[in-house]
Amino acid sequence: MSNEDIRVLTAQLAADPSSLVFLPLGEALRRRGQLAAAEKVAIAGLTRYPDLADAHDLLARVLGDAGDLERAFDEWDIALRLDGGHAGAHKGIGFLYYVAGDLPKALSHLESALTADPGAEGVAAAVARVREALATPATAMTAPQPHRPAAVASLPPDSGDIGAAEASAAEVRAAVFEGLEGAQDGLLLLDAEGLRLGGGLSAPDGAPVGDSVAAHLAGVFRDAERAARLLSLGSWKSVAAETADANLFLCAPTAESLLLLVRDNSVPIGRLALQAEHASDAARRWLEGVA
Amino acid sequence: MRVIEPWVAEPLQRFLSESSARVVLLTTASAQVVAQHGFTRALDVMSASALGAAIMASTEELGRLTASGASRSLSHQGPSRGLFLAGFDLPQGRWIGLVVYDRDSSLGLVRLFFDRMVEELRAVAPTETPAREVLAADFENELNASLRSLFGR
Amino acid sequence: MNTDIVAALESVTRVRGVRGAMLVSAEEGLVVAEASMEGLDGAAVAALTAGVVARLSRATEAAGRTPPAFVHLRADGGGLMAVPALTDLLVVAVTDPEVNVGLVRLELRRVAENVT
């Protein structure tokens, strides 16, 4: 959209503040990267039309581009409560779930977006890609980097390029714990933001869960560090847990990474701690090599 | 996060960071907005500040009538989010805090860090400004002025 | 406060290296009962421990596993241990760094089984 077009829309909005022209104006400003102005236009429009799903969708896209994914999620959530079939909101939330590694929820929302708007650009390709990822074992899956605001409005490009990149990433992740028991399943290395760096994890039914577990573990790391600090227990060293069918051990090989070890109940926690030491050494060597 | 009084910013930011609260609103007892985080619409802020002040005033009056003492805080747990409302005293007068949290937090965490935030606010609050009497005629103007500031307009 | 619960918690604090024990509401992170928590901020212990356990439960759920039946957070200067009781309670112990983890876990489970 040209500068002249934006001037025209701005003049229309100034002449009639209750006009819905704030929607195309906000979208135009967002596409030009003028996010602060786009947000003001969207918020002003929402003040007048708080029940308009399109307005919440606009604000969500602006917030997403600005990197505020949490608020973007909230706005799309509101849009869906106002209009359960809103294609833009399903697409946006679907992408956020994809970024978070929750592929089943991502697929559900992307399929809803496709149903609501069969001609939506890129959605059909995204649905196919997520279906393919769900059908592939854990080591062949990758989740895109979060905090890429520009990627919220457009979905990953040609699937051929991504297939090769995913295979390469899978090889790298497998190398982290090469030679260790559980290198492919039961050992997970992640960064402090919840992104999987290496290893893999499957649920008892075989479903790959490494990425979604990694996302949750970042919160455990933060809470454990906070608890130890605020209760004057010093620096936290590990969190061990026993469930009905597994034992888990979480520790930090470095200040910016986390390691999760999962074994069935036959492996006592004390032995898990020893295995975690070996895995931490391997993780540190790998991280130093990558840095 | 937007604040009217700059000295509120750091304690509030620490509270948000530690408690993982989704929405926070700080107001005076007469519903003048001091700071907010998480609201996207001015109308919601106005409604919440007025309701919060009214609820605290009613609860404190009920406490007085029943000789059960002034209420420090109230909480309500919904299906997916919880609400915490508390009054506290500063040199500037009585303020009210309204906090909305979800399962990323808990009532215990919100109360823990809210109490710490209040201690920090008391430590940094300027002591020279006397508490002002808000006249009915000024009330709406002040609410609108603070809302404009909070929404960057 | 239910004296039976406090007595049960005191059996945990009698283990060498245990600084305090409490019963906590898991969802709200609030203290239900406590024993020998001198020098410890009970409200903080309750809220922070419940937070860690809740977050870990969501991680185990994402992994297709059941919620934790025992959690042990180790730090340089001490530790926290928690065992769930009934549907929404945790039995929590705060410990020194050198403590017999197995003994404390046994006592926590005993308390959890007896909580009514």
Account of the protein in words:
The complex is a heterotrimer of chains A (291), B (153) and C (116). Chain A is α+β, with helices and mostly antiparallel strands. Chain A folds into two domains: 149 residues, Serine Threonine Protein Phosphatase 5, Tetratricopeptide repeat (Alpha Horseshoe), CATH 1.25.40; 114 residues, Dynein light chain 2a, cytoplasmic (Beta-Lactamase, 2-Layer Sandwich), CATH 3.30.450.30. Chain A is built from eleven helices and five strands. In chain A, a hairpin with a 4-residue loop joins strand 1 and strand 2. Chain A is elongated. By secondary structure, chain B is an alpha+beta fold. Chain B has one domain: 2-Layer Sandwich (Beta-Lactamase), CATH 3.30.450.30. Chain B has a six-stranded antiparallel sheet, sandwiched between helices. Chain C is α+β, with helices and mostly antiparallel strands. In chain C, helix 1 packs antiparallel against helix 3. Chain C has three helices and five strands, in the order H-E-E-H-E-E-E-H. Chain C starts with a helix and ends with a helix. In chain C, a hairpin with a 2-residue loop joins strand 3 and strand 4. The chains are: A alpha+beta (291), B alpha+beta (153), C alpha+beta (116). At the A-C interface, helix 10 and strand 3 of A face helix 2, strand 3 and strand 4 of C.
